[in-house]
Design brief:
By secondary structure, the protein is α/β, with parallel strands linked by helices. It contains 18 helices and 29 strands. The chain is 30% helix and 25% strand.
């Protein structure tokens, strides 16, 4: 069995001697790390007379790692192309990416921006990747290759345009189908360009952004093929920054978690919870990590870079405390991370991040942050089977994330950015508000894609939340109806099914799903947002947010659960075969993110009615995650408060009458009660701390 990977990045500097590097590797091993990511993997500054120039340093690292028992990941593409496949003596101006005006893109302060679709750049990359694999593949210490760190590419050059045209041909088949969707009058494919006009149709922008994401997969494919043509035995890794489902600021990179995960052996994510000074809130961190787990076909992923300290010498507000590193690491593990690589081992001693980062200080001495990582290592490697083999449990709740819907929302809001306060990220904000409400109620969830809805993968869940989904086509409608037929509950809010996948407004909204959902949309307004439940015994009043959707019910099967003050339906529930559709006629979860807290009451109602939570904490301030395996589970309990909390946590387990429970941090047995397939664990967790329990059979 492959062990859990816990490591740090070693950014090799030309000033380092082999002795310096050896001492750093030995100290990493001493602190409980078993993996080192080495960047760069080629060393143009070496003495050209060395036997293996420009790879001698890499050979020395791998040899010493063999002796220490460390595993090495060679990072082949970071953000300094001149130290990788495009050294200055090979660089040409034509290799730069081009902006929309056709000028070479040299705007980045951090690194060069090359055109990965240029055939010569592609050749440089492929040739170097093959040579790196040939040089390093025989070492037992080699774990694998990170073929692209923080995927990012945009260019408006002729090579990329030709790829875009081929992509469009694959989607539309003939030029008239494209003309119909784009509302254009092209005579042939050679006339199609990077169109920016949105007045007639938003499809030119939506299609470009879809291609923009797919292009990352095309580039990864040739990078992967270059390695695999030489070395088929070692895995390839690539990683994004945060998750496309949460960190909308990185939309233009572009990033597609699912696309990257499909094109590599290990999907990684770079995670900086304090990158902007203020720590990202816990629910948002969980949501981001859940995005990485959802995108990975195996539910397993790596945090390829986890923040270790402040970014640079003039950014002390991003200072990282040891307990923060410990918390972030356990959050990642609890969501399915099977590798954590800290960025980075030692602080930068040159460049714009001078004095930034590092588990050790500028003198190479240990710090409390390094000790916190060592404490995490001690727990993980005392129970390696559980931490490597157990994966996130399948929850009862799924959240639809649709990358094309995000592109539609961005295209439809872009002309109105001066009017609206947060138009461009309203889709991801809606999902963030939804996830926060689920998290506050201790209801675990996972993202699913439109393909999962259409394939039937969604049938593994009890409930599907769909928020601000403006686009529903025939295939999506059919998949949703099949899910409801089998007993699934579909909860929608905000925009829902206004347009088809070609950008055309449906005559009846929400499209083909209206009869099954039991309502149609007539209009929308921004006034009269207050509504209340119709059942007097519930006595709950709500404040809507952003939009009041004017609905008409379509059948006697449609039950109005809540009404706006003007008497119009605010929440409509329609039974459909064994399941049901529930539509909330306002931006309900978006409002929750913005501080309209009454939505939490409706989530509690849904949880009670459909049993959406899988673990129950007696004190709701505790937050739980579960990894399950064939012979037991790992239960993570987080206390984010300033108080010590004593509580009971109840989890459902097969063969619950024959189990043992161990606190993995204290290595002590835990008092519990078992009955009717439920295990009740007594917990006492200090302020701002974590407890981790194994629950398994007595024989395991």
């Amino acid at each position: 069995m492959e062990d859990f990977r816990l490591g740090a990045v070693l950014k090799v500097q030309r000033e380092h001697t082999w002795k310096d590097i050896g001492e750093m590797l030995a100290m990493m091993k001493e602190k409980g790390l078993n993996t080192v990511v080495v960047w760069p993997a080629v060393y143009w500054w070496e003495d050209k007379s060395l036997e293996n120039y420009p790879f001698q340093t890499g050979h020395e690292i791998l040899k010493f790692a063999d002796e220490l028992g460390l595993k090495i990941v060679m990072e082949l593409a970071g953000q300094i192309t001149s130290l990788e496949y495009a050294p200055d003596f090979l660089m040409k101006d034509e290799y730069y990416a081009l902006d929309r005006k056709g000028n070479k893109n040299t705007s980045g302060l951090g690194y060069g921006y090359l055109n990965f679709n240029h055939p010569e750049v592609r050749g440089l990359i492929q040739n170097q990747y093959k040579e790196i694999a040939e040089q390093y593949q025989s070492y037992k210490s080699l774990y694998g290759y990170d073929i692209w760190n923080e995927t990012m590419f945009t260019s408006f050059d002729s090579y990329t345009l030709e790829l875009f045209r081929e992509w469009l041909k694959g989607k539309y088949s003939d030029i008239e189908s494209l003309n119909n969707a784009w509302d254009r009058a092209y005579g042939d494919w050679s006339q199609v360009g990077f169109a920016t006009w949105l007045w007639a149709s938003v499809m030119p922008l939506v299609d470009y952004e879809q291609f923009h994401k797919d292009n990352i997969g095309m580039i990864l494919s040739y990078m992967r093929s270059a390695i695999k043509s030489v070395d088929k035995s070692h895995p390839v890794i690539a990683d994004n920054i945060f998750s496309m489902t949460t960190m909308d600021e990185f939309y233009d990179r572009p990033q597609d978690d699912w696309n990257v995960a499909r094109n590599v052996d290990i999907y990684g994510m770079d995670f900086y919870p304090k990158f902007f000074g203020q720590v990202l809130p816990p629910f948002f961190r969980w949501q981001t990590l859940m995005g990485a787990s959802s995108a990975s076909p195996s539910k397993k992923f790596w945090v390829s870079e986890l923040q270790t300290h402040h970014t640079a010498m003039f950014l002390p507000h991003s200072y990282c405390h040891p307990n923060e590193l410990k918390t972030w690491a356990w959050e990642a593990v609890s969501q399915g991370a099977k590798g954590i690589v800290f960025w980075k081992w030692n602080p930068f001693d040159k460049g714009v991040q001078l004095f930034g980062r590092g588990l050790v200080n500028v003198k190479g001495e240990s710090t409390p942050r390094a000790d916190a990582v060592a404490a995490v290592s001690k727990v993980i490697f005392a129970s390696p089977k559980e931490f490597e083999a157990y994966v996130p449990e399948t929850p009862r709740v799924a959240i639809l994330y649709d990358r094309m819907n995000q592109d539609f929302v961005k295209a439809l809001t872009r002309p109105y950015e001066a009017i609206l306060s947060t138009p461009s990220r309203i889709y991801t904000d809606c999902i963030a508000g939804l996830y926060k409400c689920l998290w506050d109620e201790n209801i675990p969830a996972k993202y699913i894609s439109p393909e999962d809805v259409q394939s039937g993968e969604i049938n593994s869940y009890k409930a599907l939340f769909v928020s601000n989904q403006v686009c529903i086509d025939e295939a999506m409608a059919a998949g949703l109806m099949r899910f409801a037929e089998s007993g699934g509950i579909i909860i929608t809010d905000g925009k829902f099914g206004e347009i088809a996948r070609n950008g055309l407004l449906w005559r009846q909204i929400p499209g083909l799903i209206s009869p099954s959902a039991g309502f149609e949309l007539l209009d929308m307004q921004a006034d009269q947002l207050n509504f209340s439940m119709c059942e007097p015994s519930e006595n709950i009043n709500f404040t809507g947010y952003y939009e009041h959707r004017e609905l008409r019910t379509l059948s006697s099967e449609a039950e109005v659960l809540a009404m706006f003050e003007n008497g119009e339906p605010a929440i409509v529930r329609s039974n459909y075969k064994k399941g049901a559709f529930i539509h909330i006629a306002t931006f309900f979860w978006y409002g929750y993110l913005k501080g309209v807290t009454q939505a939490h009451q409706f989530m509690k109602r849904l949880n009670a009615q459909y049993m959406l939570s899988t673990v129950e904490a007696e004190d709701p301030r505790l937050k739980t995650n579960v990894l399950r395996g064939a012979d037991g589970c790992l239960l993570f309990v987080f206390n984010y408060t300033g108080d010590e909390i004593t509580s009971k946590v109840t989890i459902r387990m097969e063969n619950a009458n024959d189990c043992k429970i161990t606190d993995l941090i204290s290595r002590t047995s835990v008092i519990s009660a078992v009955a009717d397939g439920l295990v009740q664990v007594n917990v006492c967790i200090p302020a701002d701390d974590i407890a981790i329990y194994t629950i398994g059979s007595i024989d395991s």
